[in-house]
Amino acid sequence: MTNSEHTAYEAGRSGFGPIDLAGRALGLCYRAMRMRSDRAAMQAMPDHLLKDMGIARSEIDYYTSMRYAASGAEGMDIGNVR
User: Which of 15, 26, 38, 57 is deepest in the core (most CB within 10 A)?
Assistant: First the structure.
């Protein structure tokens, strides 16, 4: 690997420094808060609206868990979960 290739590789790596770690931790906290507010909003919905979205009230926790949150999207896309 030449010096220029090595420099480009080093600059391209991210996620190893304390700033990157703090950013990921804040992002995870933000996602958790967002999922909690989404869960509360869905719990407040009447059953007929939940049925229109294709989920049952008992499935709200399943769809708003951190596993199924969209990684790059701002909101939740329930249609792609199933």
Answer: 38
